[in-house]
């Protein structure tokens, strides 16, 4: 069983990742840390509590994290611009409002409360004292980890693997150069990618390549429980939003970005194109702020990430369907 900590900016795709991780028998979720991103950290914390509760686990501790980036917002030039409509949470499609990332998810509130310890301090306390390595799955801005690793770089020695949804090679979304998670705190992303822990980086290229279809949506909806129906509804909202605002190569599909990280931990064969790569993140006031830079020179630096650029959409759906139906995920 893989022991993990999830670091999330919980909108709908983070919620799906949380529910899949909580329900997968191959995974033990030790803690959930929240961060700014899809909405305020107050809302991402509430959404995280709701997602864990919806999956049957309100006992997993939730640690609220950073409300903003490490340094980026100190520069007026580098502050985040108005989001594109497809990233903004709602879209009008044929007169119907569909919600990709509402501020608060339509899930019931649990009776439990978040922890008092801030997420970066939790990382310091837990990783300094744990006797076993842990996997960290990060699907939002990397501010919490960036702060913790800045205070104690030796924490990286306690990380078995960092599984990150972030960056893009040929894909971007929030700007012409950058993927949203890296753009929202480039300094933190740069620190994390250079920390020395084993890193599997699920890029925007990979999540777009395994976008789900209407057929996948119907299969998930038929399972009938809260997690599966929530996922099917999100696939529906995303398919309509992407078709309207950001058409994909495969028409009528919807990337559920963050869930790919958990699908990979359940069944690594969901990833179909992975290469060792030397990667950095640009931190600047220019058009490249937050851009994932892959060193393609023949004399490139030593690889620091396993770079994922393609994944299998049918296997992605198989994994989610198996986990949500209680059969524990596929293995081959």
From TrEMBL:
Residue ranges of domain Inosine/uridine-preferring nucleoside hydrolase in the record: 4-316
Task: Tell me the protein's name.
Answer: Nucleoside hydrolase
| Gene Ontology terms: cellular component | cytosol
Q: What biological processes does GO assign it?
A: purine nucleoside catabolic process
Q: Which domain of life is it from?
A: Bacteria
Q: Which GO terms describe its molecular function?
A: purine nucleosidase activity; uridine nucleosidase activity
Return the InterPro entries for the record.
Answer: I/U_nuclsd_hydro_CS, Inosine/uridine_hydrolase_dom, IUNH, Ribo_hydro-like
Q: Which UniProt keywords apply?
A: Glycosidase, Hydrolase
What SUPFAM superfamilies has UniProt attached to this entry? Nucleoside hydrolase
Q: Which organism is it from?
A: Anaerofilum hominis
Asked if Hydrolase is a keyword of the record, the answer is yes
